[in-house]
């Protein structure tokens, strides 16, 4: 059985890195800190693993593709380091049963948790969602992180919105379903929409960029749009931004 040392990636606060440096030599060397064997470095939207001596991996390869479904899972950072995006890989527990999580539920949950954690750690509430191609797909403004959605099991309207890919959110128990959620304002940026606002956010130090595979950015945008469409017309917009509740 293998165990990974899970370490957060370097932040802007150097005092936070003392504990992580203890297992790596020459911490003050002017070089990028990469995971060694059995290390796992956690980033905002990804984690880094040491690729070992995988002879089938070409050093020129930049995208890591699933051989079965051809989905992009991550990308190579160096000859011995792979970046896996958190929205593309589910970690199965070493022991106990494992129930597959519906794709739409998993993506929403991962992104929502990321927004909550970053807003708490860095006091930032505005985010740009970028693809691996460098393009900006969505501008997100976190409004509330403690929203609770409650729904009677007799209603199917919101469930249809939460299941754009045929997945189903299961209620906790009893005759009423409840979900923890975050409320966000967002603007789509595909096809040059909101370009001026996107450019302004790009140069704003108070905006935090989030990077995902481009296909996932489009999935996320579809989920946002379907959720907004389920709201009453009077509640769909706020200050030119569209409103969305996202479960996690």
Folded structure, characterized:
- This protein is α+β, with helices and mostly antiparallel strands and 248 residues long.
- The chain has 2 domains: 81 residues, no CATH class; 123 residues, no CATH class.
- The protein is built from 5 helices and 12 strands.
- The strands form 2 sheets. Strands 1-2-3-6-5-4 form a 6-stranded mixed beta sheet, with no helix packed on it.
- A hairpin with a 2-residue loop joins strand 11 and strand 12.
- The protein starts with a strand and ends with a strand.
Report the sheet-strand fraction: 25-35%
- From the N-terminal CA to the C-terminal CA, the straight-line distance is 31 Å
Mean model confidence by pLDDT: 76
Backbone structural class: alpha+beta
The biggest beta sheet is recorded as: 6 strands, mixed
Oligomer: single chain
Structurally, the number of domains stands at 2
Q: Assign a percent range to the helix content.
A: 10-25%
* pLDDT < 50 runs, ≥5 residues: 1-8, 10-21, 155-173
Order of helices and strands: EHEEEEEHEEHEHEHEE
Report the strand count: 12
EC number: 2.3.2.26
Enzyme class: transferase
Catalytic activity: S-ubiquitinyl-[E2 ubiquitin-conjugating enzyme]-L-cysteine + [acceptor protein]-L-lysine = [E2 ubiquitin-conjugating enzyme]-L-cysteine + N(6)-ubiquitinyl-[acceptor protein]-L-lysine
Pfam families: HECT_2 (PF09814)
Question: Which terms summarize this structure?
Answer:
12 strands, single chain, six-stranded mixed β-sheet, 248 residues
Helices and strands, with pairings:
Layout: E1 5-8, H1 18-21, E2 39-42, E3 46-50, E4 63-65, E5 72-78, E6 81-85, H2 103-122, E7 126-130, E8 136-152, H3 157-161, E9 176-188, H4 195-202, E10 207-211, H5 214-230, E11 237-238, E12 241-247
Parallel strand pairs: 1-2, 7-10
Antiparallel strand pairs: 2-3, 3-6, 4-5, 5-6, 7-8, 8-9, 9-12, 11-12
